[in-house]
Amino acid sequence: MDAVGAVIIMFAGLWLFLPAMLPNSAAVVFGGGTPVDFGRSIGGKRILGDGKTWRGFFGGGLAGVVLGMILMGIAYLLGKEDIWGYGGLWGGIGIIVCLSFGSLLGDMLGSFIKRRMGIERGKKAPILDQYDFLIGAFLLTALFYPRWVYDTYIEIPGWHILALVFLLIITLLLHRAMNIIGYKAGLKDVPW
Ligand code: CTP
Ligand code: MG
After folding, report:
1. Are 89 and 77 in contact (CB under 8 A)?
2. pLDDT (tens digit, 9 = 90+) per residue, 67-83?
3. How far is the CA of 152 from the centre of ligand 1 (A)?
4. Would the pTM of this model clear 0.90, i.e. be above it?
5. What is the DSSP letter of 53?
6. Which of 21, 24, 28, 132 to probe ligand 1 with, by most ligand atoms within 8 A of CB?
7. Helix (H) / strand (E) containing 41
8. Could you tell me if residue 45 is left (phi over 0), alpha (psi between -120 and 50 degrees) or otherwise beta?
9. How far, in Å, is the centroid of ligand 1 from the Cα of 180?
10. CA-nearest residue, atom 9 of ligand 1
């Protein structure tokens, strides 16, 4: 494994994970309206809270799927489907759907846990806020496409684990940057 190979593994892993990274930002834009939990509570605490809406879920999810299709198209046009693509067409679409909707399911699971802990909507929960989407995306994708997840983000002798480490670091930095941008753009009340 040379340095160039390591950099390609890391950036390919990031590129292929973009359909999981867009949905939560897109949900801020598309969100609003009926909450996923329809306003219901258990034990006096909201199931998910007003920050998780059906429009955010489907709008964000479709945005991620569309982005993934564009990425597939680019890899195809460049003839680089081996590294920058998801494999075959239908498998690729399946992976993209899992990444995109898995990230939103993870985000909802994060909110579910926050509510159970008594943390109100929009209040901070370190680690959970940053990584809930990533865990959801990996779990759902690994459920249906374990081989792809292993080959792309784990395979130790080939150093694919570097892609996962890179993702974990980039996610922290991006989360911070996006929150500051959202705050400055007036989409969020607090810069975190
Ligand atoms: N959003 C949405 N539907 C989703 C996810 C997000 O409508 N499924 C929108 C909401 O307007 C939400 C915003 O995106 O307020 C930011 O998402 P997030 O930070 O995940 O929600 P919070 O409001 O911080 O709520 P929570 O404490 O539950 O994370
Ligand atoms: Mg939040």
Report:
1. no
2. 999 999 999 999 988 88
3. 29
4. yes
5. B
6. 28
7. strand 41-42
8. beta
9. 15
10. 28
Q: Helix axis angle, 146-153 relative to 161-184, nearest 10°?
A: 90
Largest CA distance in the chain: 56
Verify whether ligand 1 is closer than 6 Å to residue 115 (CB atom).
Answer: no
CA 73–ligand 1 middle distance (angstroms): 30
Give pLDDT tens digits for 86-143.
Answer: 988 999 999 999 999 999 999 999 999 999 999 999 999 999 999 999 999 999 999 9
Specify the ligand 1 atom closest to the Cα of 32: 7
Spatial distance between the Cα atoms of 177 and 170, rounded to a whole number of angstroms: 10
The Cα 38–Cα 59 span in angstroms is 18
Q: Extract the tokens encoding 34.
A: 């009926």
Element (H, E) at 42: strand 41-42
